[in-house]
């Protein structure tokens, strides 16, 4: 079982908020920074909660977020 | 069954035949490599669709009757980009419907052939009577600046030959090529010689000479024409009707790109006009009264000038084979030093305006005739005689 | 960080990204779903052609790194017909909008469906003409406000899945942009089958339609989709309504019937002159 790596392509985000709202585990929140689009991209606040459901990645209209599975080195 | 005509079962049945202009057009198309026809029934062009429906499957080609003329031309644009030589045929009302798609074909540099068998207009007009009323529309029918090539056959043999030429020009210049034929030439029956395949010269679009990752679909060669890849060949390129750059990407907000593109779409025809334009000069060397005519009217004019010569009038004929790009240089040169130019047309004044533009120093007389009958040789002779006495 | 880092970037013309669509636009979700379907199926990218019409969704053809044709308004299905019949080995997908496919393009839609030609159609139904500023269209709900129905729409909208199935489409489905998983599954199914196939995607246009109809954000429109959707597979498409309380989604038709290109090419094979 791996850990989720939430990758946010900040400058592609247009700030629709769908990923933040629909994440079933509240992994994401609005960040305070402003990107080149002039909006607040999301930031990860709860990485451990991510179940790799991938919904944020599927629902993003801008292909600005995707999840990678990082396999632990044991 | 229309497909027969006593032809041998071959793609190009070399031989001598007696057939209608519309049928000869189909045989010419097939000889030129046309393997896709989409059309819609309309008088007096329906025969072309019917003959294609019978002949194309025999040579492995696709025939489809679409739901309207807009669909017909749209389908042949798609077929051309998928790699087939494609044609449609219609008459005035359908030709009007096709205009937007002609613009799309010009903008996307799609080789295709459109036959307009002209009838009386405007609107529904006279569906079964001939005309030459669409010849200006051929050049100016769609919005925006663009160029097309238009040919005007005067005989059933030319319906065969010029259809091949239309395909060759369409492929060479990546442009819609129009066959503007009056309803008489299209429906009359005459002798046609179909040469053996090896004697028929067929051109096809230039193909890319670079691999897909280097291909720029609208980067022209020196002749201003870009090589054309087809869908499914691995080039994975984009085509759009929006103003686009050499990669085919939309650049609708870039004035420099617009200027460059529109100029090239026009100049690739205008600057190559000398290679494209063809006329037929009869007894012009010393002619004082010159008839400029095309289509079936030129046949009557030919007889008229011969009879005029018998009466001692120095008459000559400049027959336009190419209507667009307009043979301005040929017209200007042929009419230099003459006394009068007469332009008989089966419309109320179309090509005559181009003739007036080209001929600066000699009076140009328009001779319109509308309705079932083309100009009779006698009528053109009378016009010549009247002109001569002015 | 650029789009090139996205695992699906190989399906995109990354040099043209970010796309022109508004924040939260359903078109972006459709693009996302489409490339995932291509990826899951490992589609041969050299043998698929996307044809689009005019409208915001029409721009999708430019963003996909495939053979693509952005045609004039209403004509993608007619152009697609030519492409498919000229080379039946190509997978031809039309992606266009409700106005392009069902107003100006309506005639081409019903005839292609009638022929059962194997063209796959994805319709982004956002209930208005977004690109030109939010005018009404053939799917605009009654009473909705748009720039050409400022006093409320008095027209009845099409039920697209009903229309498609009545016209002869052999695969008909409707999902919303919220149903991303089901949408991807339907697209995959569509790409694997023959025959005229149609997926209506109820999609949000927050900037135009949403703004004029009290749903000012993508989230509000999505909440409508989520709240009102009822999955009713193989229910009667004639009763698959879309209202503020009920959006009937699912697969409605999945049938087998000889396709136009099969019949056409069988005919050609029988008729073609055999050379000795």
Secondary structure elements and pairings:
The complex is a heterotrimer of chains A (74), B (390) and C (276).
Chain A: E1 3-8, H1 18-22, E2 28-30, E3 42-44, H2 55-59, E4 65-70
Chain B: E1 15-20, H1 21-31, E2 34-39, H2 46-55, E3 62-65, H3 69-81, E4 85-90, H4 92-97, H5 99-107, E5 112-120, E6 126-130, H6 135-140, E7 149-151, H7 156-173, E8 176-182, H8 183-187, E9 189-194, E10 238-240, H9 255-270, H10 273-276, E11 279-282, E12 289-293, H11 296-310, E13 315-320, E14 322-324, H12 328-335, E15 340-345, H13 351-358, E16 364-368, H14 377-388
Chain C: H1 26-41, E1 48-52, H2 60-63, E2 67-70, H3 76-86, E3 91-97, H4 98-102, H5 106-115, E4 119-125, H6 160-167, E5 171-176, H7 180-192, E6 197-202, H8 206-212, H9 218-228, E7 229-231, E8 247-254, H10 260-271
Please explain how this structure is put together.
The complex is a heterotrimer of chains A (74), B (390) and C (276). Chain A has 74 residues and is α+β, with helices and mostly antiparallel strands. Chain A has 2 helices and 4 strands. In chain A, the strands form 2 sheets. In chain A, strands 1-4 form a two-stranded antiparallel sheet. The longest helix of chain A is centred in the N-terminal third of the chain and has 5 residues, at 18-22. The mean pLDDT of chain A is 93. Chain B has 390 residues and is of the alpha/beta class. Helix content of chain B is 36%, strand content 22%. Chain B has helices at 21-31, 46-55, 69-81, 92-97, 99-107, 135-140, 156-173, 183-187, 255-270, 273-276, 296-310, 328-335, 351-358, 377-388, and strands spanning 15-20, 34-39, 62-65, 85-90, 112-120, 126-130, 149-151, 176-182, 189-194, 238-240, 279-282, 289-293, 315-320, 322-324, 340-345, 364-368. Chain C is globular and about 65 Å long. In chain C, strands 2-1-3-4-6-5-8-7 form an 8-stranded mixed β-sheet, with helices on both faces. In chain C, helix 1 crosses helix 7 and helix 5 crosses helix 6.
Distance between the termini of chain C: 63 Å
Q: Report the principal-axis shape of chain B.
A: globular
The portion of residues forming beta strands of chain C comes to 15-25%
Helix fraction of chain B, binned, reads: 25-40%
Q: Which sheet architecture does the biggest sheet of chain C show?
A: 8 strands, mixed
Q: What is the average of the pLDDT values of chain C?
A: 97
Distance between the termini of chain B: 55 Å
- How many separate helices of chain C? 10
CATH architecture of chain C: 3-Layer(aba) Sandwich
Gyration radius of chain B, rounded: 21 Å
Shape of chain C: globular
Q: Please tally the β strands of chain C and state the result.
A: 8
Could you give a short account of the major beta sheet of chain B?
A: 8 strands, mixed
Please tell me the overall pLDDT of chain B: 96
Percent helix range of chain C: 25-40%
Query: What number of domains of chain B?
Result: 2
**Which residue ranges of chain B are poorly predicted, with pLDDT under 50 across at least 5 consecutive positions?**
none
């Amino acid at each position: 079982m791996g850990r989720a790596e939430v990758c946010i392509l900040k400058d592609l985000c247009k700030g629709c908020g769908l990923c933040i709202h629909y994440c079933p585990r509240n992994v994401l929140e609005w960040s305070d920074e402003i990107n080149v689009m002039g909006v607040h991209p999301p930031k990860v606040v709860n990485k451990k909660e991510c179940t790799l459901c991938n919904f944020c990645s599927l629902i993003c209209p801008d292909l600005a977020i995707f999840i990678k599975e990082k396999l632990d080195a044991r | 069954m229309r497909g027969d005509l006593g032809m041998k079962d071959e793609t190009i049945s070399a031989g001598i035949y007696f057939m209608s202009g519309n049928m000869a057009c189909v045989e010419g198309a097939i000889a030129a490599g046309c393997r896709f026809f989409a059309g819609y029934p309309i008088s007096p062009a329906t025969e072309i669709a019917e003959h294609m429906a019978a002949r194309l499957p025999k040579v492995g080609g696709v025939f489809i009757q679409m739901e309207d003329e807009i669909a017909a031309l749209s389908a042949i644009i798609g077929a051309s980009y998928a790699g087939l030589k494609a044609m449609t045929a219609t008459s005035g009302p359908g030709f009007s419907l096709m205009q937007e798609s002609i613009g799309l074909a010009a903008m996307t540099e799609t080789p295709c052939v459109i036959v307009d068998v002209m009838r009386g207009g405007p609107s529904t007009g006279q569906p079964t009577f001939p005309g030459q009323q669409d010849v200006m529309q051929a050049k100016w029918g769609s919005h925006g600046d663009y160029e097309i090539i238009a040919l005007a056959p005067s005989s059933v043999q030319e319906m065969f030959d010029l259809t091949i030429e239309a395909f060759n020009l369409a492929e060479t210049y990546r442009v819609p090529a129009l066959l503007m034929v009056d309803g008489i030439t299209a429906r009359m029956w005459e002798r046609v010689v179909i040469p053996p395949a090896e004697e028929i010269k067929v051109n096809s679009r230039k193909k890319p000479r670079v691999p897909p990752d280097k291909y720029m679909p609208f980067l022209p060669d020196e002749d201003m024409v870009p090589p054309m890849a087809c869908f499914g060949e691995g080039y994975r390129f984009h085509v759009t009707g929006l103003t686009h750059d050499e990669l085919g990407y939309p650049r609708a907000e870039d004035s420099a790109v617009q200027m460059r593109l529109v100029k090239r779409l026009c100049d690739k025809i205008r600057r190559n006009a000398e290679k494209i334009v063809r006329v037929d000069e009869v007894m012009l060397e010393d002619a004082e009264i010159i008839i400029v005519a095309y289509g079936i009217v030129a046949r009557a004019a030919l007889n008229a000038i011969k009879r005029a010569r018998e009466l001692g009038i120095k008459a000559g004929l400049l027959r336009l084979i190419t209507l667009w790009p307009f043979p301005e240089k040929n017209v200007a040169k042929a009419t230099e030093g003459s006394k009068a130019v007469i332009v008989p047309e089966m419309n109320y004044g179309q090509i005559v305006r181009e003739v007036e533009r080209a001929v600066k120093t000699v009076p140009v007389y328009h001779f319109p005739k509308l309705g079932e009958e083309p100009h009779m040789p006698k009528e053109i002779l009378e016009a010549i005689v009247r002109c001569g006495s002015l | 960080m650029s789009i090139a880092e996205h695992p699906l970037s190989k399906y995109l013309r990354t040099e043209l990204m970010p796309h022109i669509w508004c924040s939260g636009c359903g078109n972006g979700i459709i693009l996302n779903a489409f490339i995932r379907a291509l990826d899951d199926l490992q589609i041969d990218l050299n043998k698929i052609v996307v044809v689009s019409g005019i409208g915001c969704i029409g721009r999708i053809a430019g963003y996909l790194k495939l053979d693509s044709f952005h045609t004039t308004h209403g004509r993608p299905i007619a152009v697609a017909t030519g492409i498919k019949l000229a080379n039946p080995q190509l997978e031809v997908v039309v992606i266009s909008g409700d106005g392009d496919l069902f107003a100006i393009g309506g005639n081409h839609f019903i005839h292609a469906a009638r022929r059962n030609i194997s063209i796959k159609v994805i319709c982004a139904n956002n209930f208005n003409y977004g690109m030109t500023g939010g005018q009404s269209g053939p799917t605009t709900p009654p009473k909705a406000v748009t720039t050409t129905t400022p006093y409320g729409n008095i027209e009845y909208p099409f039920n697209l899945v009903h229309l498609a199935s009545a016209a002869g489409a052999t695969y008909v489905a409707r999902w919303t942009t919220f149903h991303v998983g089901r949408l991807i599954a339907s697209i995959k199914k569509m790409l694997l089958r023959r025959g005229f196939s149609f997926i209506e995607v109820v999609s949000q246009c927050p900037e135009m339609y949403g703004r004029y109809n009290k749903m000012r954000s993508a989230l509000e429109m999505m909440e409508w989709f989520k709240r009102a959707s009822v999955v009713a597979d193989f229910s009667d498409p004639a009763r698959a309504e879309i209202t503020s309380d009920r959006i009937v989604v699912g697969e409605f038709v999945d049938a087998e019937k000889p396709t136009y290109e099969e019949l056409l090419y069988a005919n050609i094979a029988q008729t073609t002159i055999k050379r000795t």
